[in-house]
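Sample entry follows:

:::
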Amino acid sequence: MKKKFIIIGGGAAGFFAAINAAELNPDLEVLILEGNNKVLQKVKVSGGGRCNVTHACFTPNELVAFYPRGKKELLGPFHQFMTGDTMEWFENRGIPLKIEDDNRVFPESNSSQTIIDCFLKSTKNAGVVLKTSARVDAILKKDDQFLVKTTSEEFIADYLLIATGSNAKVLDMISGLGHKIIPPVPSLFTFNINDALLKNIPGISVSNASVKIVNSKLEENGPLLITHWGLSGPAILKLSAWGAVELYQKGYSFEIEVNWLSTNLETVLNILKSVKKEQAKKQVIVRSPFSEISKRLWEQFVLAAQITSEVKWAQLSNKELENLANQLAKCTFKVSGKSTFKDEFVTAGGIDLKEINFKRFESKLHKNLFFAGEVLNIDAITGGFNFQNAWTGGWIVANAVGN
């Protein structure tokens, strides 16, 4: 009699595990249960609809550094299935990939639908059964097997993989099986800021700013983007990932300090003093002396330093120079709230990692019960890293089940 492998969750990790397990062992019955009427929705919206498949970092020790939670646990798994393996997997299925300048990896088609179509085709070819609108109501242990109840059917699984992300109802069921759940909190979000300096210049960016949370050790560097609601860009998103728990505890109300030039205050002040001598007769507001700072952003800094538009460099007092330097190198903002980064909702939290055997991504409490993806207390910064965790977990589960 054929053994049955059931996957709860029609997302990246679930599909990857299902396809690979079915290909490894054609005698295995593989079934995906998805509660919604559509599958792979995170894949669809990832990378602005282009699907950021992974990140071109090919050394496990370097790759794990991008994971605020799961760094230690993923080191071994990444030695089994890594970025290069992911790229080879897709390319072997006729999906050419490309590495962009920031090392993010996308399909050459620039469409997430290419990845979705690849999964659906591979699923069909491997004989995997997919059931949508199959919301799971209960998961029960039955001797050495698992009873999975949906709203309309019941299934018996010899092997069970739960890959549902941070679904609260499923996390409750997992808790009912005895697993400890770290309460999920949002990760990867932008900062809501209502400040006159930012109000009229959405879309302006700088290539390398430094942002730190006041009264915290949290600090990140990277591109910074001004939006209609505040600040975004890689510097902010990295801060939100590393500070997910701390910022949740602060109720998303805190102060940040932005150094728009990633240059220390003293150096910025000395540059401004030099400009004062060299451009004495020119109006301060007319031209930014820093190539990184656009004219529109420079105008906002000048006005925020309480320097009127008619003032010339020679007329600036030492106090006004200091005010301007502070706007550039120690600019503070009050953050009051967050916004989800596009549609890519990611959480910190999930199953306690101490209860997982990462050689198989298997529960230490129940044999043949597996977990992969964001249902575990693992998350990463933006850039394809969360998908790499899903591919690696799915691959290892497939090998544990298929072999």
Observations:
- The longest strand covers residues 331-340.
- The chain has a mean pLDDT of 96.
- The two ends are 16 Å apart (CA to CA).
- The domain at 4-185+343-402 is CATH 3.50.50.60 (FAD/NAD(P)-binding domain).
